[in-house]
Structure formats: structure tokens, C-alpha cells
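Example 9 (inverse folding). The structure is encoded as follows.
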């Protein structure tokens, strides 16, 4: 029996040695020179990994964590790192050739976390290119300048998300406003563009036209103001409006200006003025997010520099807004794009390409000066509409309506008691002399009403009142 057991043990040991020589080692974790292959920790680790691997994997793991594993080969929860040792047997690693080493036993948790999600370490050698990306499950994108197409896709994707969010906010605000009583409801944003050919000389006519409109526009975008340093003070006297920003030439021709309706000027922020074009950029804060508004005048027979720099002036503001609105007298012709044109000019082709690159659509479909369409409205807001109004000077006015609710005030008049001026002695006498016998036979509810009416009637003759105006707004913090 002893010889048989010895022979079996010898055979088992020889078979194990042969398998060890033929197959690659599954683990080589050493601590203090001792083989760590069959320790209890590794056995527990294998069991935990197999149990977790059998469960459904989460698909929403963060890309940041994946990129960190890829760049550094380590995880912040432990200290697993790349080395010359392979992982324990049975680990669900995506690449068997990957090597790992364990610095201390507490890092087993992080290794289980990484292994169960199929993350692989950085390869031994890779050039980082697509031709040799390495065995990683995810490879971090090489950082560099984005192409124009990538920028457009990124901007359009952002705009679509913001537009969906804005539409949901708009529906919610309309539903809330329909069922509320005594509370203001945000009105649509109204932007009026005009080429006035002399603001000071046509200011009286402009004020009269504004009073005749059903609703006063929130913003006025004026082209060809003909202002200079001496006339800027006079330009601030437009009735009912506040001057937000303007740009004028030294020769007193051309020029642009943006006005906001009184009470609405706090919702408008001046973002910048172009140095190469007669163009002003402002942000209009609506209930659903900011809208970038551009007032632009391009003189006829001018070069294309103002068109080429449009994207540069808008680029830093696109990500933070829900939409863009460009209005102005641009003096371009393109028969395939603008219906009422005398031909197709190089400037018209260039502007159409720039607008297409920014995702802007031209909305005006009627002539605005004689037989030609010169005053344009370019926007990427889907629910915007335009209306061509009768002209001032030789250009028609263009009113743009954006279905984005803006801050709205509601004035409510009410009367308040002035108790500090009350004649309390007279009120005591009236109450003592009043006939209260009607309360003896009335029901409790009727008694309450009779008492209330009598006290209020007597109080009106002894306590003065005054009328005050309360202003409620859709922005309660203003």
C-alpha cells in the first residue's frame, strides 16, 4: 500500500510538472520570494471574478474611467499596474497576452472591477495610430484640431439637444400659463430689423410706427444709422427703448445699433463688436435659454472679409446658446438661394456656403428694397417666422418672431388699508350704535357674512385706503 501511494504521488507530481512546462503560467505573483499561485486570496479572487462575470455587465461605464485605464494602466481604487506577470487563471480578460502584477492585496478589488468590464491594459508597444492601436478595449482618441465637418456635427448635435430641451420647456410654460390666473405668461420674442438710412432724421417716424404695432418689439436692429461721436447722445432718446450697443464709422455713414425695449434691457447682454465688419453680437436671455442675435450691415460692393469672419465672431458663443439669429442688410445676390435677386454674385455664393456650414436658414421670401431681397434673416431656430412690413426710407421692415417665451411683467392694481390714519374712536362708536338684531335669527353661515359686511362697511368710513400697483413677473427674482 505504501509503495502504491508513493507511486501515485510521484505520478501526480510528474504530471503536474509536465503540464506546468507545456502551458504558460497563469499567475506569478510573488511576495518575499514565495510562490503566490495557490494562496487563499487568489482562490477567493477567482471565485469572485467568475461570480461577477456571470452577472449582466453594466453598459454605461464612464469613458473617463476607460481612458484612465488606457493611458496609465492603473485604476485609482487600487494599484494594479502593467508588469511581467499574468493575471490569475480564469480571469475574464479580453486579451490573454496582457500582463499584470499586483503590488498589494488591497488592489484585488480594482482588478476585479476592471476585469469584469473587459478593460485591458496598455500594450507593451504601440504607436498610437489606427494601424497599430494595441489590444485595448477602447483607445483614447488622439487629441488634435477638429476638422470643419467635425465642428459642424458637434454644433448641430448640441443645437438639436438644446432645441428639444427648449421645446419641452416651452410646452411646460404654456401649459402652466394656461391654467394659472393672475400670473404673467412669457410672450414670444419679437425682433424688428430695419435699414433706416439716418436714425436721427427718421426717429419721429420710427416712434410712430412702433406705437402702431400690435405688440412692441423686444429688440430693434437698425442698419445705416449714420451716427458719429456727436450724434450718439441723440440716438439714446428713442422713445420706449434703451440703446444696448452700436458701431459707427468715422465718416458718419453706415453703422449698426441694437435697442431693447424698456424693462427688457436686463435680459440682453452685449457679447462683442466685430473689428472687421459693421456687426454687433448680443445675447438675449429667454425662458428656455439664451439666443445669440447678430445685427449686421454689409455695404454694397464691399469685399468678402465680413462674410469670412462671421463664423469666427460666432464660434465662441455657439455652444452656450439654444439658437442663432442673424439679421441685416447684406447686399448679396444669389438666384438659386434668394428668389428676388438680379443675379448670382461671388459674395452671394460665399454667404450661402457660410450659412450652410453654420446650419442657418434664410427665412425672408419677399423683396425688401424695390424688386430685390437685400435684408436677410438667417437662423437655425426651427419655430421662427418673419413678416415683411411697410418701409421706412427705401427699405421694408422685417419683423422676426421667435417662439421662445421671454420675461413678462404683469401690473395689478389693488387697494390697501391705511391703518395708521384710522379713526378708531369713531369706528368704536359706529360698532356700538349698529343694529345687530339680524344675527339673532340667522344661520351661522349667514351670521358670518352679515358680520363681515357690516364691519367692512363701517371700516370704510373710518379707515382711509389707497391704490398700489403690484408687478408680477415670470422671473420672481427680479
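The amino acid assigned to each position is listed next.
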Amino acid at each position: 500500500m505504501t509503495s502504491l501511494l508513493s507511486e501515485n504521488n510521484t505520478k501526480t507530481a510528474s504530471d503536474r510538472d509536465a503540464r506546468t512546462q507545456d502551458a504558460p503560467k497563469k499567475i506569478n505573483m510573488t511576495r518575499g520570494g514565495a510562490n503566490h499561485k495557490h494562496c487563499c486570496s487568489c482562490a477567493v479572487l477567482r471565485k469572485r471574478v467568475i461570480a461577477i462575470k456571470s452577472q449582466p455587465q453594466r453598459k454605461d461605464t464612464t469613458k473617463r474611467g476607460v481612458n484612465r485605464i488606457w493611458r496609465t494602466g492603473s485604476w485609482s481604487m487600487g494599484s494594479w499596474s502593467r508588469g511581467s506577470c499574468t493575471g490569475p487563471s480564469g480571469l475574464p480578460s479580453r486579451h490573454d497576452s496582457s500582463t499584470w502584477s499586483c503590488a498589494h492585496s488591497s488592489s484585488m478589488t480594482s482588478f476585479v472591477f476592471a476585469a469584469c468590464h473587459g478593460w485591458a491594459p496598455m500594450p507593451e508597444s504601440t504607436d498610437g495610430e489606427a494601424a497599430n492601436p494595441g489590444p485595448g478595449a477602447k483607445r483614447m482618441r488622439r487629441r488634435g484640431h477638429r476638422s470643419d465637418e467635425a465642428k459642424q456635427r458637434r454644433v448641430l448635435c448640441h443645437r438639436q439637444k438644446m432645441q428639444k430641451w427648449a421645446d419641452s420647456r416651452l410646452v411646460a410654460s404654456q401649459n402652466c400659463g394656461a391654467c394659472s390666473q393672475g400670473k404673467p405668461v412669457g410672450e414670444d420674442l419679437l425682433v424688428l430689423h430695419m435699414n433706416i438710412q439716418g436714425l436721427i432724421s427718421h426717429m419721429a417716424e420710427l416712434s410712430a410706427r412702433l406705437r402702431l404695432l400690435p405688440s412692441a418689439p423686444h429688440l430693434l436692429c437698425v442698419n445705416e444709422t449714420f451716427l458719429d461721436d456727436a450724434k450718439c447722445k441723440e440716438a439714446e432718446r428713442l422713445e420706449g427703448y434703451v440703446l444696448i450697443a452700436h458701431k459707427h464709422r468715422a465718416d458718419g455713414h453706415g453703422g449698426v445699433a441694437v435697442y431693447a425695449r424698456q424693462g427688457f434691457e436686463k435680459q440682453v447682454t452685449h457679447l462683442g463688436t466685430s473689428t472687421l465688419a459693421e456687426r454687433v453680437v448680443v445675447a438675449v436671455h429667454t425662458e428656455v435659454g439664451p439666443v445669440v442675435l447678430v445685427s449686421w450691415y454689409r455695404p454694397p460692393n464691399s469685399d468678402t472679409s465680413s462674410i469670412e469672419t462671421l463664423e469666427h465672431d460666432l464660434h465662441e458663443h455657439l455652444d452656450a446658446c439654444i439658437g442663432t439669429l442673424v439679421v441685416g442688410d447684406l447686399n448679396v445676390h444669389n438666384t438659386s438661394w434668394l428668389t428676388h435677386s438680379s443675379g448670382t454674385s461671388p459674395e452671394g455664393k460665399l454667404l450661402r456656403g457660410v450659412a450652410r456650414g453654420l446650419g442657418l436658414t434664410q427665412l425672408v421670401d419677399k423683396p425688401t428694397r424695390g424688386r430685390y431681397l437685400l435684408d436677410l434673416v438667417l437662423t437655425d431656430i426651427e419655430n421662427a417666422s418673419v413678416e415683411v412690413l411697410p418701409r421706412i426710407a427705401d427699405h421694408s421692415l422685417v419683423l422676426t418672431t421667435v417662439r421662445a417665451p421671454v420675461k413678462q411683467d404683469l401690473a395689478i392694481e389693488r387697494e390697501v388699508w391705511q391703518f395708521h390714519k384710522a379713526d378708531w374712536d369713531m369706528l368704536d362708536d359706529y360698532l356700538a350704535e349698529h343694529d345687530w338684531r339680524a344675527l339673532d335669527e340667522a344661520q351661522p353661515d349667514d351670521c358670518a357674512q352679515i358680520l363681515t359686511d357690516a364691519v367692512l362697511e363701517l371700516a370704510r368710513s373710518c379707515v382711509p385706503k389707497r391704490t398700489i400697483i403690484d408687478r408680477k413677473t415670470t422671473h420672481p427674482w427680479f
